[in-house]
Amino acid sequence: MIVGILSDTHDRLNAMIAGINVLKSAGAEFFIHCGDVGRQEILDQLAGLKAAFVWGNNDFDRRELARYARSLDLQCLDAFGRVELDGKSFAITHGDDSRFVKRILTEQQDDYLLLGHTHIKSERREGRVRVINPGALYRATPKTVATLDTSTDELKFHIVAI
After folding, report:
1. How confident is the model at residue 85 (pLDDT cuts 50, 70, 90)?
2. Which of 3, 38, 113, 115 has its CB 3.0 to 4.6 Å from that of 11, i.e. a possible disulfide?
């Protein structure tokens, strides 16, 4: 399965549209947003897709956004959550709360930890957990998203032109 990973849209609709298009072109079948979504129009871009997201430190109207996400049949994972895709466990958080990150890395139960917050693309392994930050679609040069092939563990970062 190809998982499309994005983060830190901060209300930037054009960037979100471009990022989703890049991920679709790369074959993404499931989409994960690692927080700092912003507003309803950003969630609209995930409507009709298999998708999940977490809150970031700049997501302020969480109750209304969560209600709206439910109306679109999107998985809102709160500030931290897990999804199982293709037999792999994904822990997802924005990255601004070090307690979640430390817990996941200490437990060593997940295959992947997806996060954002820094606006810098990165990947590393800590024990069995592969930590992936797709970069950002706001205040990043270049703007990036990522795809992960769960069958081969191949990670690709993609530049998003706006």
Report:
1. very high
2. 38
